[in-house]
Write a structure and sequence with these properties.
Keywords: Methyltransferase, Transferase. The longest helix is centred in the last third of the chain and has 23 residues. Helix content is 45%, strand content 23%. Helix 4 packs parallel to helix 5 and helix 8 runs antiparallel to helix 9. It folds into two domains: 160 residues, Rossmann fold (3-Layer(aba) Sandwich); 43 residues, no CATH class. It has a seven-stranded mixed sheet with strand order 3-2-1-4-5-7-6, with helices on both faces. It contains nine helices and seven strands; from the N terminus they run αβαβαββαβαββαααα.
């Protein structure tokens, strides 16, 4: 992967960034995504934010090498602290982290007023999609698009959200993804077949415990039922 040829996962994240956006890419690593989008003339400005010095310097080097120092600002900062009000950001990408971490980054950014609610959020959690969707709903975001894909034997989900008229989602929609449920793909079924087997294994172990965690067992039983219904 490089700035000319993104991984399929990152390319699909980039595909959800609106044309001529002012982008903040948080956890940008080598800044491959903002550099690629700028070279494709898809965005007009970008901030590449990194909290770790090594990837931060790699991003700086990549931006310089690509001749984009006037178009992409690289900042060493924690999460959405990389965004300044003068950046006028219209889209935020956060990819390749756990859903719980992405959620905490968004919450901290909201508390510090680093996000206004007008930005499109393009989020690619590696795990913990449900907790991320719960945060989005609690903060009046509508999940406008979702995508699920497989790359290098791993399955990834992309969640695209904007603040619109509040939408209520069921617990099933928060687990599976409201948009993914509408148009389930082979990869969607593959993921949930795996998740079903994993939950059944955990349930079996919990039921053997001397002191059974009743609430956890009930939660697993409910989710197993939902998954079996989706796969039916």
């Amino acid at each position: 992967m490089n700035e000319q040829e993104l991984s399929r996962r990152l390319a699909r994240v980039g595909a959800h960034v609106p044309k001529n956006a002012r982008l903040a890419d948080i956890g940008s690593d080598h800044a491959y995504l903002p550099v690629a989008l700028m070279l494709q003339e898809q965005i007009e400005f970008a901030v590449a934010g990194e909290v770790v010095k090594g990837p931060f310097h790699s991003a700086e080097k990549q931006v310089r090498k690509s001749g984009l120092t006037n178009n992409i600002v690289v900042r060493l900062a924690d999460g959405l602290d990389a965004i300044e009000p003068s950046d006028n950001i219209t889209a935020i990408t956060i990819a390749g982290m756990g859903g719980t971490l992405i959620r905490s980054i968004l919450e901290a950014g909201k508390q510090k007023q680093r996000i206004t609610g007008s930005e499109r959020l393009i989020l690619q959690p590696n795990i913990g999609e449900k907790t991320l969707r719960e945060w989005l709903v609690a903060n009046n975001y509508t999940i406008i698009e979702e995508e699920i894909l497989e790359e290098n034997k791993k399955i990834y989900e992309i969640i695209v959200a904007e603040q619109q008229t509040p939408v209520k989602y069921s617990e099933q929609e928060l687990l599976f993804g409201p948009q993914l449920m509408k148009n389930p793909t082979d990869v969607f079924y593959q993921k949930w077949q795996h998740e079903l087997a994993a939950r059944k294994r955990v349930l079996k172990e919990l039921e053997k415990a001397e002191k059974q965690p009743v609430e956890k067992i009930q939660e697993l039983q409910t989710q197993i039922q939902w998954i079996e219904e989706v796969l039916a």
